Automatic annotation (TrEMBL):
TM helices/strands, residue ranges: 27-48, 55-73, 79-100, 112-141, 161-181
Naturally occurring in which organism (per UniProt): Candidatus Allofournierella pullistercoris
One matching Pfam family: HGSNAT_cat
Keywords, sorted A to Z: Membrane, Transmembrane, Transmembrane helix
InterPro entries reported in the protein's UniProt record: HGSNAT_cat (IPR012429)
This protein's name: DUF1624 domain-containing protein
Keyword Transmembrane helix: yes
Length: 230
């Protein structure tokens, strides 16, 4: 994730000429990073003692990031970005966790995976898998609320767009994977290879890590660009 963000800053903010970054391979790389990050966030939710409170804080920082980018770099504005998504997911899943934990984890994980794949192209106007897809009504794509949900209104633009649909399903998949690991000793032993506080620490400090790595990367890329420019 750090390397990808460094290259993104270099290409889009400092004009680095890296043609490969605009290829399908780079897009796949970006999607793998996003999916892994969101999946782990759902998995680590179970380690949070106050997931709703944590989610509201993350959501607030997402709004702050949107405001800052709108004011400073509107051409690269971030609206409904990954922080807004994660904050929303933490609140929604945190509020319903006591009931979700009573459901069978494996079937729920499978359903979440299918729903994620099925709704993957919501922003592009369709649901389905491959040739088996259906077009969604244009009336669904007309407001800020629909954009937040996953149906962007005409003219909407964001350099970091992560709506609830389909990403909430991937977050829930991570949540249920934690339940599966608790029920399967063989899987649980894999995570026991880590020092005990590692995963809870990541879950509790993911916001700080995310917020700090961005300015550090920006300053590093700025320094590299300035060095080679001279």
């Amino acid at each position: 994730m750090i390397l990808y963000h460094a290259l993104w800053d270099g290409v889009f903010l400092f004009g680095w000429n890296i043609p490969w970054f605009h290829t399908n391979a780079a897009f796949v790389w970006q999607q793998v990073i996003c999916c892994t990050f969101i999946l782990l966030s759902g998995f680590c939710l179970c380690f949070s003692r106050r997931p709703v409170r944590h989610g509201l804080i993350v959501f607030g920082w997402g709004g702050m990031l949107s405001l800052v980018t709108l004011l400073i770099i509107p051409e690269n504005r971030v609206l409904f970005g990954v922080l807004t998504l994660l904050g929303s997911c933490m609140v929604l899943v945190g509020l319903t966790a006591r009931w979700l934990k009573k459901l069978p984890s494996l079937p729920c994980a499978i359903v979440c995976f299918i729903l994620f794949c099925f709704t993957r192209n919501s922003a592009a106007g369709s649901w389905g898998l491959g040739a088996f897809s259906l077009s969604l009504p244009a009336s669904w794509y007309k407001s800020w609320i629909s954009t937040y949900l996953g149906f962007p209104m005409p003219g909407f633009f964001s350099t970091d767009y992560f709506p609830l649909i389909p990403w909430l399903f991937l977050f829930c998949l991570g949540f249920f994977l934690h339940g599966i690991c608790q029920q399967k000793p063989a899987l649980l032993r894999i995570f026991q290879q880590f020092p005990e506080p590692v995963l809870p620490w990541i879950g509790q400090h993911s916001l700080v890590i995310y917020l700090l790595h961005q300015p550090v990367i920006y300053l590093s890329v700025w320094g590299i660009s300035s060095l080679f420019a001279t």
